[in-house]
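(Protein data)
===
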Amino acid sequence: MRVLSGKETCQILEKNGFEQVRQRGSHIIIQKKLFETTITVPVPNHKELRTGPLLSIIRQSGIPKSEFE
């Protein structure tokens, strides 16, 4: 898995229907509204995301891992 920054991760999420709703400190909050629910994913705005947080973002978003490679 390649190393991504917080901004690059947000761009991938936005390409898949998410939109940035706010930022507090170093975390960007991204949401996707679905028919009956809303998916909210916090993304750390760091130069390099570690593997654990990136995998957590991928799991929460429901986007295939291949989109991030």
